[in-house]
TrEMBL record:
Keywords on record: Hydrolase
Originating organism: Pseudonocardia yunnanensis
InterPro entries documented for this protein: AB_hydrolase, AB_hydrolase_1, AB_hydrolase_fold
MF terms (GO), sorted A to Z: hydrolase activity
Name the record gives this protein: Alpha/beta fold hydrolase
Domain AB hydrolase-1: 64-224
A Pfam family this chain is assigned to: Abhydrolase_1
SUPFAM superfamilies given in the database record: alpha/beta-Hydrolases (SSF53474)
Keyword Hydrolase: yes
UniProt keyword Hydrolase present: yes
Length: 249
């Protein structure tokens, strides 16, 4: 993994259904992206795998301090990473994500995925993720073609597993333990994560700032240039930031 001048590494954690290739549209310094279990080329994980397990695996395959950028599912895993391995995280970018999953909604979505298959859930997912304008231009947009291809290719069982894992995710009452510089990126057109959720998240993390983008849930795909600028500004801010007590130094 490429390192920056201060010894830290930039790591991107992707949303449900995508894989490490999703960073293709971002204009960032050397960045590594990992593929979550059951996604991309990776086989379906064991039953009962949690987001905390995903975070532990990431730490086991990396070294040194990390600046972690997580979008949607990736942001949830990033929170677990910062809580379970605070000595490994220098800073966080939490984009269009939530500290608490809705188990009823996620379990229903998992059941529907197993019943209808990935193809049967595709349009519902894309509608939650992108703006109407992006959906209308679907066939002419590389990132839309990528998202569609990845969702269609994913094993419905693995996708359902991930929805259920999100349903068990709950770090809301522990957000005050995250002691590193954190930028929360909210999409003002996000149908999956209402902006009030992101505002509350930013308010609960001691050293957090909120950036609001005119973007949907997949802000980093639909507005990659603006998203990249927000990450670069975060890295500059985090590099100048004085850590709070207990933060990675």
């Amino acid at each position: 993994m490429a390192r920056h001048s201060d010894g830290s590494s930039l790591l991107f954690l992707h949303p449900v259904g995508l894989d490490r290739r999703c960073i293709e549209w971002l204009d960032l310094p050397p960045v590594r992206a990992v593929t979550m279990p059951g996604h991309g080329e990776r086989e379906r994980a064991r039953l009962g795998l949690t987001l905390a397990d995903m975070a532990d695996e990431i730490v086991g395959h990396s070294t040194g301090p990390l600046d972690v950028v997580g979008a949607s599912l990736g942001g949830m895993v990033a929170m677990h990473l910062a809580l379970a391995h605070p000595d490994r995280v220098r800073s966080l970018v939490l984009a269009c994500t939530t500290p608490r999953g809705d188990s009823a909604v996620m379990n229903d979505r998992a059941d529907a995925t197993e019943d209808k298959g990935s193809a049967g859930m595709l349009e519902d997912t894309l509608t939650r993720w992108f703006t109407p304008a992006a959906l209308e231009a679907d066939r002419d947009t590389p990132y839309m073609a990528y998202a569609r291809e990845r969702l269609l290719a994913m094993d419905p069982g693995a996708l359902a597993d991930t929805w259920r894992a999100i349903g068990t995710h709950d770090v809301l009452e522990r957000l005050g333990e995250i002691r590193v510089p954190t930028t929360c990126i909210a999409g003002m057109r996000d149908l999956s994560t209402p902006i009030d959720v992101m505002r509350d998240l930013a308010a609960r993390v001691p050293d957090a700032r909120l950036v609001e983008m005119d973007a949907p849930h997949m802000a980093f795909l639909e507005r990659p240039r603006e998203f990249s600028v927000a990450v670069l500004e975060h890295l500059a801010w985090a590099g100048e930031h004085t850590p709070t007590e207990g933060a990675l130094r």
